[in-house]
Specification:
118 residues, alpha+beta, Alpha-Beta Plaits, 4-stranded antiparallel β-sheet, single chain
Length: 118
């Protein structure tokens, strides 16, 4: 089964930010190494880190007109910071991988969602 792992950034320090810069070089190296190890896990299609939510544009169509607004206006704890795809044996394997993503232990959360295959 294929899963999308959505990385909710929460209070996770991400580069470039003051919070990230406050980490020691060892801490930065450990976080980067953990993300690299997750990306190199068999079955993982590495995703991408997203720019902050305030850089987004939300599109809606209402009465045939395209409307755009800046952002989504979400609490930072709800913002998606990145994603990856994982082809796993089962949900337990996807959960185990999610638990290895640094954001899960650094103030964020990982949403594991099966991909619909029609």
């Amino acid at each position: 089964m294929k899963y999308m792992l959505l990385i909710h950034q929460g209070s996770t320090p991400t580069p470039p930010s003051e919070e990230w810069e406050s980490l020691s070089e060892d801490e930065k190296g450990a976080v980067s190494g953990a993300y690299k190890a997750v990306s190199e896990t068999p079955g993982v299609s590495p995703g991408l880190q997203l720019q902050p939510p305030e850089t987004a544009t939300t599109v809606r169509v209402q009465d045939g007109k395209t409307l755009t607004t800046d952002g989504p206006f979400v609490e930072i704890k709800e913002a998606i910071g990145g994603y990856l795809l994982f082809e796993a044996q089962d949900l337990d394997a996807a959960i185990e991988l999610a638990s290895r993503i640094p954001a899960a232990r650094m103030g964020g959360a990982i949403e594991v969602r099966p991909i619909a295959e029609w």
